[in-house]
Write a structure and sequence with these properties.
The complex is a heterodimer.
Chain A lengths: L1 H6 L3 E5 L2 E5 L6 H17 L4 E5 L8 H16 L3 E5 L3 H9 L10 E3 L2 H13 L1
Chain B lengths: L1 H5 L1 H18 L4 E5 L4 E4 L1 H7 L3 H4 L5 H4 L10 H8 L3 E9 L2 E13 L5 E10 L1 H18 L3 E4 L2 E7 L4 H18 L3 E8 L5 H16 L3 E5 L3 H9 L9 E2 L3 H11 L9
Parallel strand pairs in B: 7-8, 8-9, 9-10
Antiparallel strand pairs in B: 1-2, 1-5, 3-4, 4-5, 6-7
Helix pairs in contact in B: 8-9
The chains are: A alpha/beta, B alpha/beta.
Chain lengths: 127, 269
């Protein structure tokens, strides 16, 4: 249960077979790996169709965290779960672009805020 | 007067007599120092600039009088002039009681009969007018370079005119991303009709900008690509086609934006 202990720093809400995950600011490497395993197992157990990662609390994101979150998102994609990143701040985006990250916008969708993210997921499930 | 100058002996006499007066009368600060940067000469305007008497400045270290960012370090033109034996000039600013004064200063080495460098002479030109004009121009172009305009509900447009350098690309990106958050835009049109030529650096900046807007959940359409620009992009081997939606005119771009937003423009029948 140690994994869950550290992961409790972030909030996970389940709404109509979607998970809404609020990413905390300055997550440590341990937090992130715990987060990765918990989120994938939960999506599997609860038969989740879509996951929204909410970055609106994040003020800073380093390349390592970015890659971890990117990998988790891709893993979820493999499990047939739609992933939407929402609420990335302009400052965070500019620093990520300056660091030269390669973001796969084809498999991972992005939206400005939670509302637009939910709309995106609703569109996907109605198709 | 003419007669006296024609006489070689008299000319010699006049020039030695007038030398210091000539320097004194130059309406811009002139200063000479020895190798230890001790002031050996300062003209009237120079002393007035520092608000001191000419007499009390002699023998003092020049860096203790001016306190500029170049003073007593390797950026000092006087030091460079004395080591290289050539004229060195640079921009600088003198901190005065009523704020910084922007100057251009020129330093030349002084040599003795044997050609050994024994000191340096420097004169200062006030360029505060020029600098304030440059700053105003820069501020103006900075404001003009990033006009992100809301064109429709959820559609923004950023017309780019002139040269795109890294600084401007950075400003454009910041302005766009902030405006996207502000207006919850879903599509942004980047119109490069006004960009005369596109090189690899500019293309790279544009690709970066489109990536950034995508991370914010906003699609970026590049419009206004003229035939010449399209050909250069292909000749340079830049892979833009796969990563960016491109259109030739702004209206095509707007039509694409409407398509993305599931909107349709219809004639009223």
């Amino acid at each position: 249960m140690d994994e869950n202990e550290s992961f409790l720093r972030t909030s996970v809400t389940e709404i109509s077979s979607s998970l809404i995950v609020a990413i905390a600011d300055e997550m440590s490497d341990e937090d992130l790996s715990a987060f990765a395993s918990v989120i994938t197992t939960q999506s599997n157990q609860l038969h989740i169709k879509g996951v929204i990662l909410n970055f609106s609390m994040v003020q800073m994101l380093d390349t390592f965290s970015m890659r971890m979150l990117h990998d988790v998102s891709k893993a979820l994609q493999l499990m047939g779960v739609k992933v939407v990143w929402v609420g990335l701040k302009p400052g965070v985006v500019i620093s990520l672009i300056d660091l030269g990250i390669d973001f796969d916008t084809v498999t991972i969708q992005t939206a400005l805020n939670l509302e637009q993210g939910l709309e995106l997921l609703a569109q996907e499930s109605s198709l | 007067m003419d007669n006296r100058i024609d006489n070689p002996v008299m000319r010699q006499e006049i020039s030695t007599d007038l030398k210091l007066q000539l320097l004194d009368q130059i309406p811009t600060p002139v200063m000479a120092v020895n190798r230890d940067f001790e002031i050996i000469y300062m003209n009237q305007v120079g002393a007035e600039l520092l608000g001191k008497n000419r007499g009390e400045l002699i023998g003092k270290h020049c860096y203790n009088q001016f306190h500029t960012p170049h003073c007593n370090n390797d950026r000092c033109c006087m030091r460079k002039a004395m080591t290289t034996g050539e004229m060195v000039s640079s921009r600088n600013k003198i901190p005065l009681s009523d704020g910084d004064k922007h100057i251009m200063y020129y330093a030349v080495p002084l040599k003795d009969e044997g050609g050994n460098i024994v000191g340096g002479l420097e004169y200062i030109v006030d360029i505060s007018e020029q600098v304030s004009y440059e700053e105003r121009l820069q501020e103006q172009s900075r404001q003009m370079s990033t006009p992100t305009i809301k064109l429709w509900d959820g559609v923004l447009v950023l017309p780019v005119i002139g040269v795109v350098d890294s600084l401007r690309a950075q400003l454009m990106m910041e302005s766009m991303l902030n405006k996207i958050v502000e207006t919850s835009a879903k599509v942004i049109l980047l119109d490069i009709q006004g960009v005369a030529a596109v090189d690899t650096a500019i293309a790279n900046h544009l690709i970066k900008i489109t990536k950034a807007t995508r991370l914010m959940g906003c699609e970026c359409i590049l419009s206004g690509i003229s035939p010449a620009v399209a050909q250069t992009i292909i000749q340079l081997g830049i892979d833009m086609v796969d990563s960016i939606t491109t259109k030739s005119t702004l209206s095509d771009g707007l039509a694409e934006a409407f398509r993305i937003l599931n909107m349709k423009v219809q004639k009223i029948t």
